[in-house]
Write a structure and sequence with these properties.
Structural class: alpha/beta
Largest sheet: 6 strands, parallel
Shape: elongated
Number of helices: 11
Radius of gyration: 18 Å
Strand content: 15-25%
Distance between the termini: 19 Å
Number of strands: 9
Bound molecules: adenosine-5-diphosphoribose
Order of helices and strands: HEHHHHHHEHEEEEHEHEEH
Length: 248
């Protein structure tokens, strides 16, 4: 796998690095992406029926069961070498921010610390009506439980279509993109905004921006470098190329 010297050099010298990940970084852990043909969740399910406030109002049981199915998929999965390589990179960089669109929590399970979850987390819950955070040790499978505060329905704490991103997370992500010297954009189709704007914000703020994906997507030719290979293979190879066998 040919990794350009310019990227290896920047990995070694950058003091401020920001990374954006999408579903592709978890694909090699067996977690389906959203838009990959046939295998992607949106190729098999209708997002309008499952991932919007209207969908939850219309059929809360269907939506709840679908997220229970996704939680089970993720619980059966493990971080892959791509996740582990990013956790290793964080330990070597003074100012490192890992911004993810993923709700699977696999980056933290891989040991990453400074993780910004733009689209929420499958294993967190809040009330659909009063928005109060709700702790569920064991989430019921079949139907959303009632909110202990207001009796309303509990929903997963993820960002649905038509909803705003959590403002603190977005501000942290933009600040990291604006100040970084190197921006890695990994395993995202780059079609969902505002997350897809981050690599462009970083580039226009002077950072060297790199895409890592298995195939060209919406970001094609808009960054400084595009590397097409599975992230679970390319990221460990990049760490070894930059930091030698010390990479763990
Ligand atoms: N390594 C690198 N990239 C990969 C791999 C892999 N092993 N496998 C797939 N990919 C790439 C695909 O080529 C595609 O570009 O990952 C990308 C996955 O794109 P999407 O399925 O669109 O996922 P993502 O970009 O994370 O979606 C953004 O959309 O549905 C909403 O909220 C959901 O966070 C999600 C958002």
């Amino acid at each position: 796998m040919q990794i350009p010297d310019t990227l290896i050099e920047r990995m070694r010298t950058a003091r401020r690095v920001a990374v954006l990940t999408g579903a592709g970084v978890s694909a090699e852990s067996g977690v389906p992406t959203f838009r990959d043909a046939q295998t992607g969740l949106w190729a098999r399910y209708d997002p309008a029926e499952l991932a919007s406030p209207d969908a939850f109002r219309a059929n809360p049981k269907l939506v709840w069961q679908w997220y229970a199915y996704r939680r089970a998929l993720v619980e059966a999965a493990a971080p892959n070498p791509g996740h582990l390589a990013l956790a290793d990179l964080e330990r070597r960089i003074e100012d490192f921010t890992l911004i993810t669109q993923n709700v699977d929590g696999l980056h933290r399970r891989a040991g990453s610390q400074n993780v910004v979850e733009l689209h929420g987390n499958l294993f967190r819950y809040r009330c659909f009506h009063c928005a109060a955070p709700v702790e569920l040790t064991i989430a019921p499978q079949d139907a959303p439980p009632p909110c202990p505060q207001c009796g309303g329905l509990v929903r997963p704490d993820v960002v649905w279509f038509g909803e705003w991103l959590p403002s603190q997370a977005w501000q942290t992500a933009v600040a990291a993109a604006e100040r970084c010297e190197l921006f890695l954009c990994i395993g995202t189709s780059g079609v969902v905004r505002p997350a897809a704007d981050l690599p462009l914000i970083a580039r226009s703020s002077g950072a060297y921006a790199v895409e890592i994906n298995i195939a060209p997507g919406a970001l094609d030719d808009r960054l400084d470098l595009h590397l097409y290979a599975p992230s679970g293979q390319l990221l460990p190879a990049l760490m070894t190329a930059a930091f030698g066998d010390a990479a763990r």
